[in-house]
Design brief:
The longest helix is centred in the last third of the chain and has 22 residues, at 608-629. The chain starts with a strand and ends in a 15-residue tail after the last helix. With 709 residues, the chain is α/β, with parallel strands linked by helices. It has 29 helices and 19 strands. Bound molecules: (S)-3-Hydroxyhexanoyl-CoA.
Length: 709
């Protein structure tokens, strides 16, 4: 019918195939091609039934997300799906949709406009639009409750998680699971329907699962309240529930109109733009400018992890979860046993929660070989080093590794602060050395900062990026500097949180302001969770680098001197009860009062706005430096680091995107104001100043020749 959609015939069954790689998105031309194909098949007297199927690796993964940006920026863009869906549903000949891979978003909506659906068992269906800050806009909120019932539709549209085909069969979204060849199975199914005769079943005319809207009053209220908590700051989740409620109260055509209004509101919102930025950003960070396409990857078949502490254990779990066997080395039997026990406990917890079965856990545990020696290290393709954070020890370990691993073994340090080049200098093969900075808990957090040393080879960088994908992490390549990208920015963020407490903001008010902004957790609670002693030790080690006369906070050092390291000691910024519930603690107020006296600070009322601006703009100002220095390749890399590793809200798109949204002139003015009032920590980053003055944006800034790091 066109380049993107083909129409063929197998005897009396027409077969419409979509060919729009890689994921058969509904880009301009695809809906038109399907519509023309259905019309042609409808008019062909030799055709008795129709099968719609995706070519390549999947059915339709959704509307073409690239079109959204064009629409909202007024640069064209086409999305209209209703004409094709109406043509499909109104076709008098039975139309069977055959699903493999994913039928997501507009893909599932297209499938539901067909009369019947068959799928292979590995297929997934879903309405993930909420993850892009929008709602289904092509009838998903109206047809899904008719097929699967209201509660399932709410779950799928407000949370966006995929549903495997066998579950979709149970829900009534799919009519049959096909074993063997999908097309053959779909054609056979279509023939059965043709043989039965009668008018095709239209989803829009089903009402059995909608029942009387009166019974839903309480249900919708409860669903909204739950989504307010679980989908904090994402109005699209509420809008999805509104649209499904409309399906229970309005005739189909009016429900579609209501859905369209809500879809438009969501599409033009800042949340949606931010979440779409995050979607494409996660894919963009995998592309490394300057890295030749033909670069050879090292095969990673076996790994070794040095150190079975919290980080080492978590890293080992990542490897074995991906099916890569691990030698787990510790210095003493006691530490090794403790590490293995923690891993076992974590896995047992997952089994208890039903995430996977006991045999899966057993398989994973069997992939870990505990050891106290370097025996077998000549067999591994990568060593992940996660020993105690200290330069002397790391250098000792890297020098030892030289003697026991093959020359083509990658040496990856999990250091979170130390200079990767100095670590590499202890090795005779610095080109094989790289930083793999995991985030705690390493088996949960998605971020992997990949720290490129001066000598790290292209092959080692490319293999690390590929490995991140295999470990189901978001790998972001950064340059070498103190704290790399994420922690270097986090320093000023947490510094401002402490200074605000010293100036008079209540500890829980600081946390509440950032939580309300959308952060997964406030800065004080985060400090208590990670352990305040971590920063305290680092500060002591780097005391000599402090800027004389600058206003460093004293609070956390003092809390640590009192033994208040955070949750692990039962007290930090808060006091923790036996259920780990936090409480404000007058002891902390006393500490802060003392500091005010010593520093001559007049306690003052501090509003939410100042708290948020001080913390978030501290991130942005440092981020601007990191960007200009080339530590981060692009602004989006910083955004993804913060979204995947620091609990920054997806609906704000990351710190740099957020600053662009606020307007860099406004951000810069505020930074200048803080600089005048609070001193040298707030010196505006040159790039922030430049962009503010030229009306530019971080997202559009690119390094030009001569600015390379
Ligand atoms: C929607 O449908 C709204 C409707 O209600 C209609 C309203 C009117 N569009 O992820 P991958 C690209 S909203 C454009 O690396 P995987 C992706 O950027 C949509 N491009 O592969 C990448 O490009 P590149 C609802 C898309 O195998 C390449 O394809 N649907 C789209 O790991 C490969 O992607 C969704 O939200 C798209 N829809 O995962 C589904 N999807 O190579 C979004 C992908 O240049 N997509 N691309 O970097 C996904 O979840 C995953 O891509 C999928 C495949 C699971 C399908």
């Amino acid at each position: 019918m066109n380049d993107l959609v083909s129409l063929t015939r197998q005897d009396e069954i027409a077969v419409i195939t979509i060919n729009n790689p890689p994921v058969n998105a509904l880009s301009p031309g695809v809906p038109e091609g399907i519509k023309a194909s259905v019309e042609a098949a409808q008019q062909d007297p030799a055709v008795k039934g129709i099968v719609l199927i995706g070519g390549g690796r999947t059915f339709i993964a959704g509307a073409d997300i690239k079109e959204f940006g064009k629409i909202t920026s007024g640069k064209g863009g086409r999305l209209s799906l209703h004409p094709v869906l109406e043509t499909m549903e109104n076709c008098p000949k039975p139309l069977v949709v055959a699903i493999h891979g994913t039928a997501f978003g507009g893909g599932l909506e297209t499938a539901m406009a067909g009369h019947y659906r068959v799928a292979v068992a590995t297929a997934q269906v879903g309405q993930p639009e909420v993850k892009l800050g929008i709602i289904p806009g092509a009838g998903g909120t109206q047809r899904l409750p008719r097929l699967a019932g209201v509660a399932t539709a709410v779950q799928m549209c407000a949370y966006g998680d995929p549903v495997p085909a066998p579950k979709a069969l149970e829900y009534g979204i799919v009519d049959k699971i096909v074993e063997g060849d999908l097309l053959a199975g779909a054609i056979a199914f279509c023939r059965e329907i043709v043989a039965k005769g009668g008018p095709p079943r239209k989803t829009s005319e089903l009402s059995g699962k909608l029942s009387d809207s009166g019974v839903y009053d309480f249900f919708f209220e409860a669903a909204r309240s739950e989504a307010r908590k679980k989908q904090r700051g994402i109005p699209a989740a509420q809008a999805a529930i509104d649209a499904i409620e409309a399906a229970t109260r309005l005739p189909f055509a009016e429900g579609i109109k209501r859905e369209a209004e809500l879809f438009q509101q969501c599409l033009f919102s800042d949340q949606s733009k931010a979440m779409i930025h995050a979607f494409f950003g996660e894919r963009e960070v995998a592309k490394i400018p300057g890295l030749p396409k033909e670069v050879q990857l090292y095969p990673i078949r076996r790994a070794a992890v040095l150190g079975a502490g919290t980080m080492g254990g978590g890293i080992a779990m990542n490897y074995v979860n991906a099916g890569i066997p691990v030698l787990l080395k510790e210095r003493s039997q006691e530490d090794l046993d403790r590490g293995l026990n923690t891993i076992r406990k974590n896995y047992a917890n997952s089994v208890k929660k039903g995430r996977f079965s006991q045999p899966v856990m057993d398989q994973r545990m069997a992939l870990i070989t505990p050891t106290l020696t370097y025996d077998g290290f000549d067999q591994v393709d990568i060593v992940a080093e996660a020993v105690f954070e200290g330069m002397a020890l790391k250098k000792e370990v890297f020098a030892e590794l030289d003697k026991v691993v093959r020359p083509d073994c990658i040496l990856a340090s999990n250091t979170s602060t130390l200079n990767i080049d100095e670590i590499a200098s202890a090795s005779s093969r610095p080109h094989m050395v790289i930083g793999h900075h995991f985030f705690s808990p390493a088996n949960v957090m998605r971020l992997l900062e990949i720290v490129r040393g001066k000598a790290s080879s292209n092959e080692v960088i490319a293999t690390s990026m590929d490995l991140a994908r295999r470990l189901k992490k978001v790998g972001v390549l950064v340059g070498n500097c103190m704290g790399f990208c994420g922690n270097r920015m986090f320093g000023p963020y947490r510094r401002e949180a402490q200074l605000l407490a010293e100036e008079g903001a209540a500890v829980d008010a600081i946390d509440a302001a950032l939580y309300e902004f959308g952060m997964a957790m406030g800065p004080m609670a985060t400090g208590d969770l990670a352990g305040l002693d971590v920063g305290w030790r680092i500060r002591k080690e780097y005391k000599h680098l402090e800027i004389p006369g600058a206003n460093y906070p004293d609070a956390e050092d003092q809390l640590c001197e009192m033994g208040r390291y955070g949750q692990k000691t039962g007290a930090g910024w808060y006091r923790y009860d036996e259920n780990r519930k936090r409480h404000m603690d007058p002891e902390v107020d006393k500490v802060l009062e003392e500091i005010r006296k010593k520093k001559g600070i007049q306690k003052r009322e501090i509003g939410k706005e100042e708290i948020v601006d001080r913390l978030i703009y501290a991130l942005v100002n440092e981020g601007a430096r990191i960007l200009e220095e080339g530590i981060a390749l692009r602004a989006v890399d910083i955004d993804i680091i913060y979204l995947a590793g620091y609990g920054f809200p997806a609906h704000k798109g990351g710190p740099m995107w957020y600053a662009d949204t606020v307007g860099l002139k406004k951000v810069y003015d505020r930074v200048v104001e803080f600089h005048q009032r609070l001193g040298r920590f707030w010196e505006p980053a040159p790039l922030l100043k430049k962009l503010a003055e030229s009306g530019g944006k971080f997202a559009e800034w690119t390094r030009t020749k001569g600015q390379e790091a």
